[in-house]
Amino acid sequence: MRQSRTRTRVRARIHRPHGRLLASVTLLVATALLAGCGPKVEAVTDVRPGQGTPVEGGTAVMALPPAATPNWIFPIGAPGYLATYNSAIQNLLYPPLYTPEPDKSGKLTMDSPRNVADKPRFSDGNRTVTVTLKKRYRWSDGEPVTADDVRFWFELIRANKDDWGGYSPKLLPDNVERFQVLDDHTFRLRLDRSYNPAWFTADQLEYFKPLPRHAWSKKGEDPKKVFKRLLTHAKQLSKFDSDPLWKTTMGPWRVEKWTASGHVSLVPNKRYAGPDKPHLDRVVLKPFTTASSEFNVLRAGGLDYGYIPPSVMAQSAHFKETGYRIDPWESWGVTYLVPNLNHPETGPLMRQRYVRRALQSLIDQKAISKHVWHGSAEPTLGPVPSALMEENALPYDPEKARSLLAAHGWKRGEDGHGTLRCAAPGTGEGHCGKGIDKGQELALELLSQSGSTETSNTMQAIKSSFSRAGVRLDIREQPLNTVLGTTVPCKPKEPVCSQWQLGFFGTQGSWIFPAEPSGQQLFATGAPSNMGNWSDPRTDELIKRTEYSDDDSAMRDYARHLAREVPVLWTPNPAYQVSVIRSDLRGVDQNPTLTLAPQDWYFVKKPARGGKGANR
Amino acid sequence: MTAEAATPTTPQPAAGEPADDDGPDATPGLARRTLAVFARNRLALLGAGLLAALLAFCFLGPLVHPTDQVHTDLDQASLAPGEAGHPLGTTDLGYDMLGRLMHGGQTSLEVGLAAGLLATLFGTVYGAVAGYFGGWADAVLMRVTDAALAIPALFLLVVVAAMVTPSKPVLILVIASVAWLSPARLIRGEALTLRSRDYVHAMRLMGGGGGRAVFRHIVPNAVGTMIVNATFQIADAILYVAYLSFLGLSIPPPAADWGSMLSSGITYTQVGYWWLIFPPGLAIVLVVAAFNFIGDGLRDAFDVRLQKN
């Protein structure tokens, strides 16, 4: 009897097949449901474009990019925290003096009505700049916004320039010899030389912003000490919405909620005195780990302003039918893979011009744009947006790449397969180049951002193309913040320099330019966003020319030089996102510099019978 | 042979004799009876047939339908079944879907089989040691098992897989590291019963040590339970591979497995690329069902009462 019970117990313990079967069948059924047997999306609104009566109030929920979690509220961006979503939010709380915006023709200008200051006045052969702040602005605690608040920002970056992500040697703050406050609302900059006014406004004055000295610093306090204290607060992500420090703002919005997972909720700053007061009660920025998860929430009606992955572009008609409008958000940027030229092992490889040119010739940007990005990306042709490039200096040409590598002593195995190895070490003609040992493999590891099917597929296509030519590419995917935190400029002996060989953080564009797409931040020697540690005297010289001269040839020469030098490997530049916006959410202007202006957004309600359309 | 002398799952050897020292006629008789019971179970035969077919499909299929599963071919991307010589269409990167199903199946089956067997082997030894020695050793070993069981397996798998770059050996170890707990508990229960058998006592009286008792008497006599459990462990392991891959923790491309194929296909559900979803999904269901049917059949085959019938 006892034995029989034991046997039954054993039988019961091992008799669980239906659970597994159920699990696997459930997997398939769930897939089938996702595949189109699930509930259909209901129409969210039937207000047609151009119709509807504007209403005040309401909450708009906007999706953040895949795997992007806002993690920096301090309006002085630190290296590793320069993601566009961070600066976009910061600018809503602490707006800069000048905001780039497209004019009616689509050309970017610095003359936005929401500028905090009047147009800068250049004098003394463009060596002196005088800026007058508009008098109406006040901090959220009622204190006026003054020129001294701008000087506070300047003192902070001057004393801590190495910790400022926007620092480029010999540019801000080095190029300002004197910052003089003329009165409560006017300050004057004495520059170290004359500059191109258009460039200086677009690429230097755009950084200037007032910060609340009265709330953040005691009188006469050392800027280094203040900055250190502010940085300590800036690293306490979980306290962004409760720390009193971040409560004093001057922009149209203030933070209501900011979670460590990246959920940000903004409400209007009631004391905002600018011309663009918010219409909505609240704007919610919602994070997503992947584009697919965002898409599912969008389909379920959980977003007012989201995006669709390029892979489902064919669904755009479906969204239009259900009360959304589709609006690709084109960015003023470039996209690339950054080689770490200071990596102890692969740095010598990537410092070879012929290697970079060969690898560039192995990237079929046209095919990737067409098939992987489904037409929502376009080839990057050089260091400036493609609209400004004249030609593709290194189009896809695998044969040329193979012969270039072979001509420099790289050989595959006896059978013509396997990874290329250096067979001719040395620095002369037909040799592999300096620092490359005999037998060294042409192999790289790519640290790429996760969360996007298109990015993963782009990298797979590149890996495949490299593989055909004998170049091994191992891909490691990590969340965007991890990639941005790892792919930082470094010196060869620094531990971080060994952590990455090739980096990619461009699912929504690697670099978005200010109005003037100069390269002082990207490719100038020692620049903060020169992640790959590119250093070339000719590049520095050409960048300087774009800063000093308003001659069009300066930008053209710079672009042409770097397109041929390939300091980074150019890859297709995707639209920032293919936006899907509720048709009753209006006022959404998608700025190519990726700034946000939710204060312009408003909802419309269905017009009364015979009523007129939207009139805002 | 009395009912008291019989083991729960296998015929009892004579007292004082190790299980593998049975007479020459005993083992063939047992095997024949086991096979006969198994052969009477239609679902078990179906499972075996399905498994054989899937193994042939994955490992012999590429010989009949050779494809390049390493290099992408963007010009052939997302073709529907039947187009341009691709019976099951192509993926978003231009891989032939039928070939990828074979290629992915190899990974799923290899990792699933290896992880399932490793978990069963380790769990068996662990449980046998705990059950045989009892006392504080049993208490410590089984509290470790209980504590590990309290942590959700999928959570553990995701954490571990995120910390290391997945590869076949890594996946096998990671999955086996959470899957051994169930067989450990099961075999420990068997060992508690087996250790009081006369032949174990006899072996100890003759000077046999604990190691001999565990490896020559306890484990061999629990082999039926082990085998049945192993089939379910393999099915579980294949599902774990699918779960992990579905969550993006698969072996990096161009390697593939059915879970990662399913995960990639989900991206295209909205545009109707059904051929990227249903084949790998169906393959997972079939292989799990096959192992379950086989496990059911083996359980019945090892059941003494059914053999006597």
From TrEMBL, chain A:
One of its GO terms (biological process) is peptide transport. One of its GO terms (cellular component) is ATP-binding cassette (ABC) transporter complex. This is Peptide ABC transporter substrate-binding protein. It comes from the Bacteria. Belongs to the bacterial solute-binding protein 5 family. GO terms for molecular function: peptide transmembrane transporter activity. Residues 116-481 form the Solute-binding protein family domain. Keywords: Signal, Transport. It comes from Streptomyces reniochalinae. It is found in: Cell envelope. Its main location: other. InterPro entries: Peptide/Ni-bd, SBP_5, SBP_5_dom.
Automatic annotation (TrEMBL), chain B:
It is a multi-pass membrane protein. Residues 1-17 have a biased composition (Low complexity). GO terms for cellular component: plasma membrane. It holds the Pfam family OppC_N. It is found in: Cell membrane. Coiled coil: none annotated. CDD domains: TM_PBP2. The chain crosses the membrane at residues 43-64, 111-135, 147-164, 170-187, 234-252, 272-295. GO terms for biological process: transmembrane transport. Keywords: Cell membrane, Membrane, Transmembrane, Transmembrane helix, Transport. Residues 105-295 form the ABC transmembrane type-1 domain. Residues 1-28 are annotated as: Disordered. PANTHER family: D,D-DIPEPTIDE TRANSPORT SYSTEM PERMEASE PROTEIN DDPC-RELATED, OLIGOPEPTIDE TRANSPORT SYSTEM PERMEASE PROTEIN APPC. Belongs to the binding-protein-dependent transport system permease family. This is ABC transporter permease. It comes from Streptomyces reniochalinae. The lineage of its organism: Bacteria, Bacillati, Actinomycetota, Actinomycetes, Kitasatosporales.
